[in-house]
Amino acid sequence: MTDWAIEFDDVWKSYPSYSHVKGGLKHFIFNLPSVVRRSRLANENGNGNAALSALKGVSFNVKRGEATGIIGRNGAGKSTVLGLIAGVMRPTSGMVKVNGRVAPLLELGAGFHPDLSGLENIVLNGVILGLSKAQVRRRMDEIVEFSGLADMIYQPVRTYSTGMSARLGFSVVAHLDPELLLIDEVLGVGDIDFQKRSLDKIRDFKKKGTTIVFVSHSLSDVNMICDTAIWLKGHELSMKGASEVVTRAYIDESG
Description:
The protein has helices at about 25-30, 30-45, 80-85, 120-130, 135-145, 160-175, 190-205, 220-225, 245-255, and strands at about 5-15, 50-65, 65-70, 95-100, 100-105, 180-185, 210-215, 230-235, 235-240.
């Protein structure tokens, strides 16, 4: 068995220019002449099919049981890395290899059905994430208690605030048994008490030997949770090493 949980080998991820029009489809339709003109210019310059690169030749490994933070400015490619690890997208070129059962804490609550109750959505999401209905039911009381939403658990999720949906989503994933946990900026969910419980739960995963990949703009959280860190800069790997060393270099450059 390999010691690596994640392997990235010269990974490139690019998107054609038309797939990244600001404002989405409506903007594309109402600004068609200018969009076509920009696309034509991109093609004339020889880069029309890869006008936007999310990652450029990124290579790194994450050991089993290691907690690795990913830092960088907005648009550097951090969420793209998580998407590739989670398997929701494929690289344009290069190799991504993941060894282990993945549980993503990405867009918390994004997969909930608005007309189903919180309780029904726990079952639905637990099954989607790989548990049997019986396993979800055995953990139901713990999930509800952890979420702090017992008073609302029989109400449809459309009546929940964004924060409440995110808390419920975190609570479901926090009671799985993942081998590899992906976390994208979720420690700000809920009140101070819930944030503390969330952080404690992530530490529990780490003690159990779960491999963790943690994307965050909070360098203090990265240093608190992670053994190592990866700094993405301009869609490329700028640095990888001990978390405190990498975050210090990032701070020094940012001024």
